[in-house]
Amino acid sequence: MLPAWLSFIIIIGIVLALSKFELGIILTVGAIGFAILAGVDILQMLINVLTNPSILLLIIIMTLLPILGGIMEESGLMIEMIQKMGISKKSSLMMIPALFGLLPVPGGALMSAPIVQQIDSEGDANIKVSINIWFRHMLIIVYPLSSSLLIVSILTDINLYILVLSLIPGLIVMWLIGYITLVKNVSPFLERGERDLRRAFHNVIPILIAPIVDFIGRTFFDFSVPEFFLFIGLIFSIWLALRFG
Questions:
Q1: Both 70 and 2 in a single domain?
Q2: How many Cβ atoms sit within 10 Å of the Cβ of residue 154?
């Protein structure tokens, strides 16, 4: 049996070498290979996973998240929300990629790129690309429905919202760096669209309701499978998104 760190390096090398092929298959093979090299009892681990309600619910949640994101995208709720906020050009350039980053769908950066281009059509293309990529990954690091945070919370047994709070300083630093280096010198709008904050808030409710339900459930109810509250919140969020859209 090889040391875990050496097994990890070997598997990462193999995954990188074969990354041009189907990524899902390569990652699965890599995980199995790592388990074999590290001497893990794969059958027992599989049984543990399939009998762990938290992990099973997490799998379902990971399936529901892209569904919510797809509904928000296809229904136009997200774009309308941004339009109705009537905010400045600088705020729009930062907020649009950040909000689209909350949608767990493939190609999210491509979704927000045309809107960033529309907002600042005269700006430097390289700056706009940088803004789109940088701010896209801001809010997601503290969003309770982030798949990364959910998995880390379960693996480390650290409360999800403790993780969120611990990442807020990093979020602030990230925003400051992005603003100073990319957005500060952007020229303002010559005119703004009509503001309708009530409509904007209406459209963002499906994104907010799931973490709110999850937070209330985890805080006020002592339940052995806390992921259940997020599952319920996501079901409600999807229902609202379908109804609003």
A1: no
A2: 17
Q: Which distant-in-sequence residues (6+ apart) come within 8 Å of 115 by Cβ? A: 79, 82, 96
CA distances from 35 to 28, 31, 169 (A): 11, 6, 36
Q: Cβ distance 139 to 102 under 8 Å?
A: yes
Residue 210 near residue 234, CB atoms below 8 Å = yes
Among all chains, which residue has been given the structure tokens 């010198």?
185
Looking at the structure, do residues 184 and 240 belong to the same domain, yes or no?
yes
Mean pLDDT score, 182-201: 76
State CA 22 to chain mean position distance.
22
**Rounded-to-integer distance, Cα 235 and Cα 223, Å:** 19
Extract the tokens encoding 30: 């890599």
Report residue 143: phi and psi, to 5°.
Answer: -80, 120
How many alpha carbons lie under 13 Å from residue 103 in its C-beta half-sphere?
A: 29
Tokens of 135: 């701010």
* pLDDT tens, position by position, 134-152: 998 888 889 888 888 888 8
Handedness of CA 77, 82, 83, 86 (dihedral sign): positive
This prediction has a pTM of 0.70
CA pair distance 12, 6, nearest whole angstrom: 10
**Pair (103, 83) in one structural domain:** yes
Q: How many CB atoms lie under 10 A from the CB of residue 226?
A: 19
Residues 43 and 62 in one domain: no
Contact 93, 188 (CB under 8 A): no
- Distance from C-alpha of 72 to C-alpha of 56, rounded to nearest angstrom: 25
User: Can you spell out the DSSP letters for 99-141?
Assistant: HHTTS--TTHHHHHHHHHHHHTTTS-HHHHHHHHHHHHTTGGG
